[in-house]
Write a structure and sequence with these properties.
With 185 residues, the protein is of the alpha+beta class. Helix content is 28%, strand content 40%. The protein is globular, with a radius of gyration of 18 Å. One of its GO terms (cellular component) is mitochondrial intermembrane space.
C-alpha cells in the first residue's frame, strides 16, 4: 500500500526570494536545530543550459531514517541517503524539486515533489508551494500486517518535518527581505 498526501503553502514573499531561501535552507547553521533530521547535503552536479536558461542541480541528502524507532532497529540502519533533483526555470519562474531515497529501498520508498511558482492572486508578491509525497513501506514478512500503520507514522513524521522546513523558509525569506533593504535581521 502507498500513503500519499499533498500540501499547499503560500509564502507572502516573491518567487525570487523564496527560491533563494530554498537554496539556503540546509546551509544556514541556525537551521540545524530545526532541521535536525538532515545530517548532510552535498551538491553532486549543477549545470546551466544556455539555450533555455534552466538550471539543473542534483544533491545528495543524508537524513535520519524515517519511521518509528523500532523499524530502524529491525532494518539495522539509522540513516537514509536521498537524491534531490532540481530544475529552476527563471524565465517561467518555476522551481521544481524531486527527492527520493536511494538507500533502504527494499524496506521503504519515499518520493517527494515540490514546486514553487508565483501565486496567481499576487504573482509579484507571493509564491505558492505545492508538495506531493508518497511513502510505501514494503511488506516485511513479520510486519506485513503493520505496514499500513508504519506508513501512517511515516506520513505524520514527514508532515511534521515539512512544517519545520516551511518555518525555516519563512525565516530565511524575512532575512533576505531585510538584507535587500540594507538591514541585518
Amino acid at each position: 500500500m502507498v500513503r500519499a498526501y499533498s500540501q499547499e503553502h503560500t509564502y507572502k514573499h516573491p518567487w525570487e526570494r523564496v527560491t533563494a531561501a530554498s537554496w539556503r535552507k540546509f546551509a544556514d547553521p541556525e537551521n540545524k536545530r530545526t532541521l535536525s533530521h538532515i545530517l548532510e547535503v552535498d551538491t553532486l552536479s549543477h549545470r546551466l543550459e544556455p539555450s533555455s536558461g534552466k538550471l539543473y542541480t542534483t544533491r545528495a541528502i543524508t537524513i535520519h531514517a524515517p519511521g518509528p524507532w523500532f523499524l530502524r532497529k529491525i532494518i539495522g540502519q539509522d540513516i537514509c541517503h536521498c537524491v534531490e533533483s532540481t530544475v529552476v526555470d527563471a524565465k517561467s519562474r518555476s522551481m521544481q524539486l524531486a527527492t527520493r531515497n536511494i538507500s533502504l529501498q527494499k524496506f521503504v520508498e519515499v518520493e517527494e515533489k515540490i514546486r514553487y511558482e508565483p501565486h496567481p492572486e499576487n504573482p509579484n508578491g507571493w509564491t505558492i508551494c505545492r508538495q506531493e509525497t508518497s511513502i510505501r513501506i514494503k511488506p516485511l514478512s513479520a510486519l506485513a500486517s503493520m505496514a499500513e500503520k508504519i506508513e501512517q507514522r511515516c506520513v505524520e513524521k514527514f508532515q511534521h518535518n515539512s512544517a519545520k522546513g516551511r518555518e525555516v523558509m519563512e525565516r530565511i525569506c524575512k532575512y533576505l527581505e531585510a538584507e535587500s533593504r540594507g538591514f541585518s535581521a
